[in-house]
């Protein structure tokens, strides 16, 4: 068994920086030795705050570093498939954030490469599957406590940024469905136990023209039909004013359940002259920090013990498949059948 997994991280942007600090400070049995970014400011952070031994601007150098066992991948979505394939071919274990790829063909290429290297752990980050509230909800549904799920609503509302941020990040995000709804898609599949049959998406760029210019949106909603019966409604917004919000509601034939935001700050309710206030997570990382930690620890444990992750790459493929279909439906303004 590997006593300490020697790891590198690719991508130190808005999530990558927080994730790198989580790995370094809280994940057990990991030494974060290397970082890779095109940004000199981010590499300076890696050197001064993370104390990495290696800092690269070329990702080929980090994946081919023989001192490393594993790569944590937090690069832009369009680069995920390429980075995973090259890291796996270089003999590295890989953890990647979503999406697995920005199209179905890239996801299948990743899976083909991974199948050729069965001794390596490759894991995709659907951290809601490590979140206590979602784990409990999934167990309740599997036990039949609410009957058969027939309607699911799942939403992600990201805290509004500003125009300069969207001008910089928007072209790299992969579109609102891949960026914000990829997790909701997996939530629907996981909680329902069913595949997605068709999608009908609508929305628009109601505030920021940058998204209109990118054929993207700042608010969307998708109606989903499930194989074997049942429907779901998935929505996303980039205009949340109070913070980062994600909620899921499941209606079954014998009952229902609702999964609310549940970060440590939300245990606090403030009473003052302005009324009653509840603190809301301000970022994705704040909402899911404990789940992200559990997920990273599971990845490391799989490497140490030759285990298999609880999330399969097929889940990443199906999430991308649905997100691509949603994008197509949004652009064509019509219902799209899922092709497998």
Compact description:
It contains twelve helices and 15 strands. With 340 residues, the chain is α/β, with parallel strands linked by helices.
Written account of the structure:
The chain has 340 residues and is α/β, with parallel strands linked by helices. The protein folds into 2 domains: 5-124, NAD(P)-binding Rossmann-like Domain (Rossmann fold); 129-288 and 319-337, Dihydrodipicolinate Reductase, domain 2, CATH 3.30.360.10. It has 12 helices and 15 strands. The chain has helices spanning 16-25, 40-48, 59-63, 80-89, 104-115, 132-142, 163-169, 176-180, 182-192, 209-213, 284-305, 313-332, and strands spanning 5-10, 30-36, 54-56, 70-73, 93-96, 122-124, 149-159, 196-204, 219-226, 231-240, 245-252, 256-259, 269-272, 275-278, 336-337. Strand 4, helix 4 and strand 5 form a beta-alpha-beta unit. The mean pLDDT is 93.
Keywords:
single chain, 340 residues, alpha/beta, Rossmann fold, Dihydrodipicolinate Reductase, domain 2, six-stranded parallel sheet, 12 helices
Question: Which spans have pLDDT < 50 for at least 5 consecutive residues?
Answer: none
Number of discrete domains? 2
CATH C-level category of the largest domain: Alpha Beta
What is the average per-residue confidence, as pLDDT, rounded to a whole number?
A: 93
User: How many β-strand stretches?
Assistant: 15
Strand content: 25-35%
Fraction of helical residues: 25-40%
* Largest sheet geometry: 7 strands, mixed
The run of helices and strands is EHEHEHEHEHEHEHHHEHEEEEEEHHE
């Amino acid at each position: 068994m590997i006593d300490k997994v020697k790891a590198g991280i690719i991508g130190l942007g808005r999530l990558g920086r927080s994730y790198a600090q989580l790995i370094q400070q809280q994940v057990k049995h990991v030494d974060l030795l290397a970082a890779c970014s095109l940004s000199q400011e981010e590499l300076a952070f890696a050197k001064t705050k993370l104390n990495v031994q290696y800092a690269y601007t070329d990702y080929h150098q980090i994946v081919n570093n023989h001192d490393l066992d594993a790569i944590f991948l937090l690069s832009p979505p369009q680069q995920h498939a390429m980075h995973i394939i090259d890291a796996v071919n270089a003999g590295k274990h890989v953890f990647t954030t979503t999406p697995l790829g920005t199209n179905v063909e890239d996801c299948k290429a990743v899976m083909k490469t991974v199948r050729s290297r069965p001794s390596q752990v490759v894991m995709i980050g659907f951290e809601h599957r490590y979140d206590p509230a979602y784990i409990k909800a999934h167990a309740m549904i599997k036990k039949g406590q609410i009957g058969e799920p027939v309607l699911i609503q799942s939403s992600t509302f990201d805290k509004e940024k500003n125009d300069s941020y969207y001008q910089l990040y928007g072209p790299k995000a992969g579109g609102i469905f891949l960026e914000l709804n990829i997790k909701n898609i997996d939530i629907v599949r996981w909680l329902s136990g069913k595949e997605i049959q068709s999608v009908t998406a609508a929305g628009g760029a109601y505030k920021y023209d940058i998204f209109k210019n990118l054929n993207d949106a700042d608010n969307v909603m998708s109606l989903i039909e499930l194989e074997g019966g049942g429907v779901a409604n998935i929505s996303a917004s980039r205009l949340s004013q109070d913070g980062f919000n994600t909620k899921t509601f499941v209606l079954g034939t014998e009952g229902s359940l609702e999964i609310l935001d549940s970060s440590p700050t939300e245990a606090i309710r403030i009473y003052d002259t302005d009324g009653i206030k509840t603190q809301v997570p301000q970022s994705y990382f704040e909402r899911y920090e404990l789940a992200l930690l559990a997920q990273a620890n599971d990845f490391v444990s799989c490497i140490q013990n030759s285990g298999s992750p609880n999330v399969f790459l097929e889940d990443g493929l199906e999430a991308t498949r649905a997100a691509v279909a949603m994008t197509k439906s949004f652009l064509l303004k019509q219902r799209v059948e899922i092709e497998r």
